[in-house]
Specification:
By secondary structure, the chain is α/β, with parallel strands linked by helices. 41% of the residues lie in helices and 14% in strands. The chain has a single domain, classed as 3-Layer(aba) Sandwich (Rossmann fold), CATH 3.40.50. It has a seven-stranded parallel β-sheet, with helices on both faces. The longest helix has 22 residues.
Length: 261
């Protein structure tokens, strides 16, 4: 709990979170922190395989709904919107913690990335956030907050990140354009750029562990970040404490991004 901040900071706020895959997911860390401060929670899962991983988490952590959501399927956006209309009627907080790239497009030479691989990474990692706001913006009242997860590999070369670096750069650009577009609706759009965390998604990036060691040695705070750290930043972005913040990339990385490494 953040000192001086009450547990009802997000009371009566409806938070839709995409990207929980297991207990190590950044999205799960965010989910727990948002609920801790009073938010109502709705989650999605990509397929039955992922649902089997999420169900055990919810045995002692009740949520308002758990909805199938394959972001490459246009029908699923309509189904999700229908569920939200029935359960809540509105969305106050949207958290997008999704990314995907084929392994060969992460591990091979960047110049060898296939067209289908590039398009798939962009579709799942970038367009899905735009599409969510396209479908849900009419259900998001003034003061709502939408956020996506990014990584500093969008700005600097990280060996083994490859096509995901391009995808995250595109996502960060989309954040700014969405913030400008949705500002007239008083919907804020931001991103959190977290330091490397051991998750299912990062397991395919061979250099992550090496970078975590560098952070412990050279980052100003000399420690790696946790999903709880990211969750704390998400609580701030979701709340009225950040009501004048939009179009920003918020770094939660122990300060490694300010160094020359």
């Amino acid at each position: 709990m953040i000192k001086g901040i009450t547990v009802d900071l997000l009371k009566n706020k409806n938070a839709l979170i995409l990207g929980v895959a297991n207990e190590r997911s950044i999205a799960w860390g965010i989910t727990k922190e948002l609920k801790k401060y009073g938010a109502n929670i709705g989650l999605t899962y990509q397929s039955e395989l992922f649902k089997k991983r999420v169900d055990p988490l919810l045995a002692t952590f009740p949520v308002d709904f758990l909805q199938e959501m394959d972001v490459t399927n246009d029908l699923h956006y309509l189904n999700l919107k229908e569920v939200i209309e029935k359960k809540w009627g509105r969305v106050d907080i949207l958290v997008h913690s999704l990314a995907y790239a084929d392994k060969e497009d992460l591990r091979g030479r960047f110049s060898d990335i296939s067209r289908p691989g590039f398009m798939k990474a962009m579709d799942i990692s970038v367009y899905s956030f735009i599409a969510l706001l396209k479908h849900l913006k009419t259900m998001m009242p003034a003061g709502s907050s939408a956020m996506a997860m990014t990584y500093h590999g969008s700005q600097k070369v990280l060996k083994g990140y490859n096509v995901m670096g391009s995808a995250k750069a595109a996502l960060e650009s989309a954040i700014r354009y969405l913030a400008d577009d949705l500002g007239e609706d008083q919907i804020r759009v931001n991103a959190i750029s977290a330091g490397p965390i051991k998750t299912l998604a990062s397991s395919g990036i061979k250099t992550i562990q090496n970078f975590r060691e560098i952070i412990e040695q050279r980052a100003p705070l000399h420690r790696n970040v946790t999903t709880e750290d990211v969750g704390g930043a998400a609580v701030w972005l979701a709340s009225d404490l950040s009501k004048a913040v939009t179009g920003q990339i918020i770094y939660v990385d122990s300060g490694i991004s300010i160094t020359a490494m």
